[in-house]
Amino acid sequence: MRISAAVSGALAVLLLVLVAVGWSPLLSFDRDVAEALHRSAVAHPGFTHLNRVLTDWVWDPWTMRALTLVAVGLLWWRRERRLALWVVGASLVAWGLQQGLKAVVDRPRPTWPDPVDSASFASFPSGHAMTAMVTCGLLLWVLTLHWRATWRGWGTITGVAVVSVLGVGWTRLYLGVHWPSDVLAGWLFGWCCVAVAIDAYRRLETRTRTAPAVTSGAAGGKEGAA
Prior knowledge:
By secondary structure, the chain is mainly α. It has helices at about 1-20, 25-45, 45-60, 60-75, 80-105, 125-145, 155-175, 180-225. It is globular, with a radius of gyration of 21 Å.
């Protein structure tokens, strides 16, 4: 997980720098993709409406947060308080990072003479994409801790998570409210947060399990000396 966190974090920071300095090849790519998708969205209102339903209800950040709260509630009910608080903390840190990046970069969203949707706040990174990645990543991790070995539906739920993460990015692009690099940054920063959270939790659990053994060994040595 450390390598995954480092790689995704490095790529995310690189993308951030390229957007901040206005690297022309990236901006040209963003514009070309956005314009092509917007033409399609205007020409196909039925499909555009479907994308709006998906992005505003199915994969909306508040839907993702509700799923997180359900998972946290179940963990708390199972008396796994540390893991529950860890999921909450990781989600809050990711949200704070997202809002901080939006404020610092302050990238304008795409503008169109005939928009098919609208969105508030700055464009970079995509909040929908980042929230979906953090939520799905953390929930899959929690599932692996408990049911991966016995649950037959593991492949299905993993597929749903992947489709959700990719799908929400697609809807933001198709509706013309984000640039491609916004969505990619949301995925990268989101996964980096998930990987860091998982790695840190594993190290904490390792220290917690080994501490009693060390303490017991030290106590035994003192008794023997006495």
